[in-house]
Amino acid sequence: MENRLKTGISNVTTLMEFVLLGFSDIPNLHWTLFGIFLVIYLTILMCNSIIILVTRIDSALQTPMYFFLGNLSFLEICYVTVTIPRMLMDLLTQKGSISFFACAAQMCFVLMFGGSECLLLTVMAYDRYVAICNPLHYPLIMNHKVCVQLVTVSWISGVPVVIGQTCQIFSLPFCGPNTINHFFCDLPPVLKLACGDTFVNEIAVYVVAVIFVMVPFLLIVVSYGKIISSILKLSSAKGRAKAFSTCSSHLIVVVLFYGTATITYLQPKPNQSEGVGKLISLFYTVLIPTLNPIIYTLRNKDIMVALRKLLTKILI
Questions:
Q1: CATH topology of domain 17-303
Q2: Closest CA to 170 of 307, 16, 62, 55
Q3: Is residue 200 classed exposed, middle or buried when 0-12, 13-18 and 19+ CB atoms within 10 A define those classes?
Q4: d(Cα 217, Cα 253) in Å, to the nearest integer?
Q5: Half-sphere exposure of 84 (CA within 13 A, CB side)
Q6: Disulfide check for 173: which of 195, 211, 252, 295 has CB 3.0–4.6 Å away?
Q7: Where is the chain membrane-spanning (predicted)?
Q8: How far is the C-alpha of 245 from the C-alpha of 52, rounded, in Å?
Q9: What pLDDT is recorded for position 157?
């Protein structure tokens, strides 16, 4: 199963492919897991596609908040498509071999979409901050041009950083075991397989994680601190309830996503358990994208009304 290239000059063996162990430790459940993850993947595609559709065609949802939500839904589709189809194929064939280049590409896209989600969630928090704390100037501040610029920055600002980091990691020598105890090429388990001193690379990972995880998270905390302070000043109980309801869905998603991302990328390397790491990764790559559309639809009256209108049009 191992594919290696041996150079005669330095007598160093370089890996040409990796083997993703995935869920090979529970072989009796392969077909059950395949069925579960297939249903989850189709559910994510369907639910997020519906959100994109209703936010595009319903006139009542042509606001910055739903523009950002539509982008988040599209981002979730991209994010899960990088990992789940590959995982389904490995469960189906019971072979986890992945080429060196494919592993690098998968890691690059996972980090790219993950970083974009961190930034987009921050943008969504800023949108709620302006809407609640500065409502009179909201249409002027969050005009369509500004919204497009914020989304564009969220999508592309992390691309050069992620490409650079991926190239840096995969330029390391991989001369030991080629088995990755994971279901996709995530950064921590791949870095563990590198030969020699990886201290500089680990520092680079922490620096990037702080920039793309901790800084946006702190900005979100500050935004929600100001939002909660403004909501508590409202005299109307109904107004407070409405303001909290528009923010609660986003806050739940932020806590779930940032919590798992922080544990994965900011935990010291020696303290990382492969089994726990795999479980946490399953949480933020599969479970959270499944919960996001449910959280945003069930807790959002405007989306539910738009869905009923769409169903009425389809059925009549």
A1: Rhopdopsin 7-helix transmembrane proteins (1.20.1070)
A2: 16
A3: exposed
A4: 12
A5: 27
A6: 195
A7: 31-54, 66-86, 98-126, 146-163, 203-222, 243-267, 279-298
A8: 21
A9: 94
- pLDDT of the residue at 158: 92
Pair type for strands 179-180 and 17-20: parallel
Question: Which amino acid is it at 249?
Answer: S
Beta strands in the chain (DSSP E): 4-6, 13-15, 17-20, 97-99, 179-180
User: What does the pLDDT read at residue 98?
Assistant: 94
- Contact predicate 288/256, CB 8 Å: yes
Strand extents, DSSP E, 42-198: 97-99, 179-180
Integer CA distances (angstroms), 222 to 141, 215, 218, 259, in order: 19, 11, 6, 17
Of 167, 184, 34, 25, give the one whose Cα is nearest residue 103. 184
Which residue in 38, 34, 3 sits closest to 17, CA to CA?
A: 3
What is the model's pLDDT at position 52? Answer: 94
Which residues, listed in sequence order, are joined to residue 94 by a DSSP beta bridge?
none
Q: Give the C-alpha separation, 306 to 121, whole Å.
A: 23
pLDDT at 272: 58
What the block records as the tokens of 204 is: 């680079």
- The pTM for the full model equals 0.88
Q: Which helix (H) or strand (E) holds 300?
A: none
Which secondary-structure segment (H or E) carries 81?
helix 64-93
Q: Where are the domains of the chain?
A: 17-303
Alpha carbons within 13 angstroms on the beta-carbon side of residue 100 total: 19
Mean pLDDT by runs of 10 across the 316 residues of the chain is 43 70 86 95 94 91 93 95 95 90 96 94 93 92 96 95 94 86 90 86 89 91 89 77 74 83 68 72 86 79 85 80
H or E element in which residue 60 lies: none
